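Worked Example 4.2. Consider the chain below.
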Amino acid sequence: MARWSLSVEGDLLRFDELFPGTDAVVLDIGFGGGEGLIDLAAARPHEAIIGLDVHTPGVAFVVEAIEDNGWQHVRVVEGDVLELLPRIRNDSLAGVRLYFPDPWPKQKQRHRRLARPDVVTQLVDRLRVGGTLHVATDIADYAAQTLAVCAGETRLRGGVTSRPEWRPVTRFERRGLAAGREPIDMIFERKQ
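Applying the procedure from the previous section yields the following structure tokens:
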């Protein structure tokens, strides 16, 4: 863990030191058990990935995969994305991925959703021009909220799109498909 993990607190992260020779750094928020992040790390070695989750077993699973594969392009953070964001320089990320986030379905829980204006603004601040915010969910209400919030962010363009072939099917997506829910992919690009 000490070698491959980053703390949520500290100085600004130096991507050039963490990932020498890589100029595309992606923040993967809430990777759960880690299977999807591991699939992406294997398939897209040209991208550096900072994976973040609060689920300790998932973090440990990803660290084990980093060790087993000798990956230099993956780091993990055990913690909350809102605590980590101050460590990420504005205009620095090539992408932010948020796949099947907790939908917090009860009305009194909705303030915990990440698809809200204050969080999206902070994420877009950290995207470089041309960087993308990719959200996938199988909860129609969450997709509608994401679309509305992102439409209100003037620096973004985009919306619902076909599932990219390179996006792995996650454990949560499989559960949703088994329950009859269809996944919705939304990709937004920072235009300014």
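The first strand starts at residue 5 and ends at 6. Helices lie at 15-18, 35-43, 56-69, 81-84, 117-126, 140-151, 171-178. Compare this with Example 4.1 before moving on.
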